[in-house]
C-alpha cells in the first residue's frame, strides 16, 4: 500500500513527538511492505511567525489532498498577545472545519502498567481496567458559534448552537461504537439549563430506536465530571458536545495516568482524510529537551492506520509494541508516578527519542 500523509509538527513539543510517530510509521511500512509519502504542513504559531496567519489556505490544501493527517500540537505563551482572530488555536478550528472532521474519538484507556500514575484510590479504579471512549462533536457548538465583543469592551458573547443533523451524526457514531464495545452510551449535556442540550436529548432518543441493543442514559455535565472521578468504571462510550467533550477528555486523561498517553482521531464522512493527534498541549517548557512523552502521538499513528488506511493488523502491532515497552518498565517522566526514583535508579527513565526507539525495536 502507498499513501500520502500530511505532517503538522506545529509548536512546542509537537515536532519532537511527531518525529517519533514518523519513525514508528516507517517501521510499520518496512515490516509490512507499505510506503508512506510525507509532506510537511506549517500551522499554528509557526505559521503565524512565517505567514502572519495560523493556517494559510495553501497549507490546508495540502491536508485536504493527503490520505491522512498527523498533527503534533499548536500554540504557546509566545503568541498570547496576538489578535484573537489569528491565535494559533485558530489553526485547529480551521483544520477541523476545513477537513470536515466532525467527530473526535478520544479513548481514555488506563494501561495496567501505569496504575501507579493514577491519582484515584484502588477501590475506585478496581483492577485498573479503565476503558472509556469519548465521542466529541468537533465542528459545531460554542467554539464555532456566533461571537462578539461590545464596542466598549465590557460585554462579550459566544453562542452555543446545534442542528439536528450535527447531533444525529455524533449520536449514531456513539451508538455504533457502543455496539462493538459494552453496549452502553451516555450522552452528556446540560439539558436542565440549555435549549441546545434539550435538542441533544431529543435527537439521541430518536436515534436510539435504531440501536435497541444499546443502553442509553443521560448525565448533566457537572454530574458527569463528578462521576468520572467517583466511579469511572460505569462509563463505556460518552457522546457529547464540543466544549463538554474538550473538558471531560482532559479530566479522563488524568484519571488514566497521564495526558501524554492519550491519542485521538478526528473523523468525517470517510470521503476525506482524518486528523490524528495526541490530546496534550505544546508544553513549551520542555520543547526540544528530549523530555516529552511520544506515546500518545505513536498511538495516534496507530489510529491513523486503523481508521484511514483500514490496516488493523498494523495498528494492533503498534499498540502491542507500546504495551511491551511499558511491560519492560520503560517510562518517561510524566508516567513514572511515585516510582520515579526507583525507575531512574534502574536506568529505565527515558526521553522522547529513546522511547520512540524502544517502540520501533519491538515492532521490528
Structure overview:
- The protein is α/β, with parallel strands linked by helices and 364 residues long.
- 41% of the residues lie in helices and 18% in strands.
- It contains 13 helices and 12 strands.
- It has helices spanning 14-32, 45-51, 57-65, 90-99, 122-125, 164-180, 195-208, 221-230, 242-255, 295-307, 312-327, 340-345, 352-363, and strands at residues 2-10, 35-40, 68-73, 103-109, 131-137, 147-149, 156-158, 184-189, 215-220, 237-240, 263-267, 275-278.
- A hairpin with a 6-residue loop joins strand 6 and strand 7.
Keywords:
single chain; 364 residues; alpha/beta; ten-stranded mixed sheet; two-stranded antiparallel sheet; 13 helices; 12 strands
Short summary of the structure?
The chain is α/β, with parallel strands linked by helices. The chain contains 13 helices and twelve strands.
What composes the largest sheet? Answer: 10 strands, mixed
What is the overall pLDDT average?
A: 94
Give the % helix.
Answer: 40-55%
Please report the total strand number as a whole number.
12
Strand content: 15-25%
Please state the CA-atom Rg, rounded to the nearest Å.
20 Å
The number of helical segments is: 13
Low-pLDDT ranges: none
Helix-strand pattern = EHEHHEHEHEEEHEHEHEHEEHHHH
Instruction: Please tell me what the overall shape is.
Output: globular
Structural class computed from helices and strand pairing: alpha/beta
Calculate the terminal CA-CA distance, rounded to whole Å: 19 Å
- How is the largest sheet built, in terms of strand order? 2-1-3-12-11-4-5-10-8-9
Amino acid at each position: 500500500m502507498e499513501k500520502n500523509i500530511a505532517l503538522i509538527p506545529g509548536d512546542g513539543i509537537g515536532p519532537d513527538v511527531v518525529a517519533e510517530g514518523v519513525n514508528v510509521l516507517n517501521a510499520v511500512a518496512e515490516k509490512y511492505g507499505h510506503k508512506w509519502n510525507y509532506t510537511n504542513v506549517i500551522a499554528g504559531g509557526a505559521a503565524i511567525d512565517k505567514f502572519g496567519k495560523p493556517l494559510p489556505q495553501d497549507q490546508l490544501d495540502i491536508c485536504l489532498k493527503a490520505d491522512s493527517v498527523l498533527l503534533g500540537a499548536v500554540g504557546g505563551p509566545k503568541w498570547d498577545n496576538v489578535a484573537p482572530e489569528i491565535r494559533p488555536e485558530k489553526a485547529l478550528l480551521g483544520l477541523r472545519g476545513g477537513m470536515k472532521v466532525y467527530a473526535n474519538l478520544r479513548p481514555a484507556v488506563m494501561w495496567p502498567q501505569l496504575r501507579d500514575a493514577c491519582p484515584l484510590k484502588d477501590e475506585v479504579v478496581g483492577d485498573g481496567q479503565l476503558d472509556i471512549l469519548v465521542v466529541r462533536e468537533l465542528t459545531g457548538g460554542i467554539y464555532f458559534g456566533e461571537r462578539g465583543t461590545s464596542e466598549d469592551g465590557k460585554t462579550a458573547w459566544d453562542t452555543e448552537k446545534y442542528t439536528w443533523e450535527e447531533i444525529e451524526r455524533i449520536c449514531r457514531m456513539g451508538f455504533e461504537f457502543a455496539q462493538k464495545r459494552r453496549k452502553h452510551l451516555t450522552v452528556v449535556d446540560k439539558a436542565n439549563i440549555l435549549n441546545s442540550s434539550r435538542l441533544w436529548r431529543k435527537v439521541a432518543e430518536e436515534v436510539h430506536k435504531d440501536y435497541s441493543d444499546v443502553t442509553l442514559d443521560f448525565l448533566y455535565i457537572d454530574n458527569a465530571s463528578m462521576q468520572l472521578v467517583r466511579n469511572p468504571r460505569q462509563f463505556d462510550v460518552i457522546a457529547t458536545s464540543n466544549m463538554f467533550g474538550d473538558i471531560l477528555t482532559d479530566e479522563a486523561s488524568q484519571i488514566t495516568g497521564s495526558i501524554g498517553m492519550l491519542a485521538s482521531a478526528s473523523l468525517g464522512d470517510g470521503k476525506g482524510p482524518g486528523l490524528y493527534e495526541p490530546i496534550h498541549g505544546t508544553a513549551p517548557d520542555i520543547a526540544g529537551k528530549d523530555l516529552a512523552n511520544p506515546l500518545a502521538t505513536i498511538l495516534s499513528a496507530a489510529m491513523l492506520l486503523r481508521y484511514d488506511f483500514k490496516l488493523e493488523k498494523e495498528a494492533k502491532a503498534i499498540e502491542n509494541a507500546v504495551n511491551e515497552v511499558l511491560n519492560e518498565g520503560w517510562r518517561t517522566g510524566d508516567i513514572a508516578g511515585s516510582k520515579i526514583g526507583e525507575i531512574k535508579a534502574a536506568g529505565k527513565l527515558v526521553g522522547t527519542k529513546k522511547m520512540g526507539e524502544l517502540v520501533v525495536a519491538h515492532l521490528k
